[in-house]
Design goal:
This protein is α/β, with parallel strands linked by helices. The protein folds into two domains: about 325 residues, Rossmann fold (3-Layer(aba) Sandwich); about 90 residues, GMP Synthetase, Chain A, domain 3 (2-Layer Sandwich), CATH 3.30.300. It has eleven helices and 21 strands. A hairpin with a 7-residue loop joins β1 and β2. The termini are far apart. It binds 5'-O-[hydroxy(phenylacetyl)phosphoryl]adenosine. 5'-O-[hydroxy(phenylacetyl)phosphoryl]adenosine (DLL) binds next to α6, β7, β8 and β12.
Length: about 425
């Protein structure tokens, strides 16, 4: 595979044994650092009977306690931080469903780390300095807009910071300024496509799409690539708790899994609701440790995201960083209907395979006298019938959801991340 551009060639292609040594050294350092600078973390280690000196090699990570989103909420706003607030220059936040937000503070060094990780992603997608990059997630507490921005600054791209919304203007700017790289949330890409189709126009200069933040099935990727008439669509991964979009990584042009930047993060995959690792290659919960963050490094953070290791071998692109499967969903996303387990991503993948189906859909879990049924609402051309949807989903999923077809534009749209799964209780009077 041709070199699609390393941003940091040495770090991205470090021989695996050197990468492991670097991780072990950084693990020792970050544990001593956190122990010395975060009273909350120190107390957590003390309670587990662990001292920094117990962490000698990578295998010792198993001795450390886990963190999860609840810890962020419990110590809101800055209780987990390792630095005084005077050293913080930026923060981002995600709200989730419980109300108390998850806050991530940044020092100048953290912004640099974020920018470099995200610049690796841009470069890996084929971006070079001077390219026009349009950034469509919001510039605000959500990390998406600023993450794509900091990365683009590192690489020296011509940034069009449109932020979210005003899709007609997005299209106009992309045409007028010849946007080569479009970045955003997956479902927003589909909104742009919808308007382009309505207008009968296109984005002739577009070559690279970098999308994430949501379930991203293979067939959705293909649909987006076909609609934009581009062949480079990438799945970028990141989260508030690791420092935002791009901190974790992206798929390379070989599209054989998402590379995670292992010089910055330690990757573990744990069996669901258990504290032990899965066998190599099995599906489990991704657990991450930040090695290089200053304001708030997470230690064994239970992400709630499900994935599996695809390979730890050197990739065709030359990078040596582990590859994981695209995120299947969140631990709590798994749906069980009539004894069949499935994830929304599988429904999306099956739906998008049907010719004429549009990338807007809802999965409705109905409760009828205690029995769960699934209804799929999907937008499609007139050529698609409910029966066709039902038949295809039965073949793909092994059970028969009801399929209702809507005209393009009929299903509600959300700003930001799309809500796909809805619950309906049909027993209510
Ligand atoms: O969604 C970061 C981001 C912004 C990624 C823009 C890509 C593009 P949070 O709001 O903190 O941060 O949400 C993080 O979103 O734990 C996953 O469940 C999900 N997620 C993020 N990227 C992907 C992806 C941003 N590529 C949570 N595929 C994560 C599937 C993703 N899920």
């Amino acid at each position: 595979m041709a070199d699609e551009g390393y941003f940091q060639p040495r770090e991205e292609t470090l021989p695996v044994d050197e990468l492991r040594q670097l991780q072990a050294q950084r693990l020792r350092e970050v544990i001593s650092y956190v122990y010395a600078n975060s009273p909350v973390q120190k107390r957590r280690f003390d309670e587990t009977g662990i001292a920094p000196g117990d962490i000698k090699g990578l295998e010792d990570i198993a001795k450390l306690p886990f963190m999860d989103k609840d810890d962020f909420r419990k110590y809101y706003p800055l209780g987990l931080a390792c630095v005084e607030s005077q050293r913080i220059i930026e923060m981002h936040m995600s709200s989730g469903s419980t109300g108390i937000p998850v806050v991530m503070p940044y020092t100048p060094a953290d912004i640099k780390q974020w920018g470099e990780c995200t610049a690796r992603c841009y470069s890996m997608a084929g971006a070079v300095a001077g390219d026009v990059a349009q950034i469509t997630p919001s510039f605000g507490l959500f990390n998406g807009g600023f993450g794509f921005y900091h990365g683009a600054r590192e690489l020296g791209l011509f940034i069009i910071p449109t932020g979210a919304g005003n899709t007609a203007r997005q299209i106009r700017l992309a045409q007028d300024f010849k946007t080569r790289i479009l970045t955003g949330v997956v479902s927003y890409a589909t909104r742009i496509i919808e308007l382009l189709e309505e207008e009968g126009s296109s984005l002739p200069s577009l070559e690279i799409g970098i999308f994430g933040a949501e379930t991203f099935s293979e067939s959705m990727k293909k649909k987006i690539a076909a609609a934009f008439n581009i062949d480079k669509v990438f799945d970028i991964y990141g989260m508030t708790e690791t420092g935002g979009v791009g901190t974790l990584g992206m798929d390379c042009p070989a599209h054989d899994g998402i590379h995670l930047w292992e010089d910055h993060y330690i990757v573990e995959i744990l069996a669901l609701n258990e504290n032990k690792p899965v066998a190599e290659g099995e599906m489990g919960e991704l657990v991450l440790t930040s090695l290089t963050r200053e304001a708030l490094p997470v230690i064994r953070f239970r992400t709630g995201d499900l994935t599996r290791i695809i390979s730890r071998d050197k990739c065709g692109c030359g990078r040596t960083h582990v590859r994981i499967a695209p995120i299947t969903g969140r631990v709590d996303d798994m749906l069980i209907v009539k004894g069949v387990n499935f994830f929304p991503r599988q429904v999306e993948h099956a739906l998008m395979e049907i010719p004429g189906v549009k990338p807007h859909y809802q999965i409705i879990i109905e409760d009828n006298d205690g029995i769960k049924d699934v209804r799929i609402n999907v937008e499609a051309d007139e050529s698609v019938t409910g029966y066709m949807v039902e038949k295809h989903l039965k073949e793909a999923l092994g059970f028969s959801p009801k399929g209702d077809v809507f005209k393009p534009g009929e299903l509600p749209r959300q700003a930001g991340k799309a809500q796909r799964v809805f619950y309906k209780n049909n027993n209510e009077a």
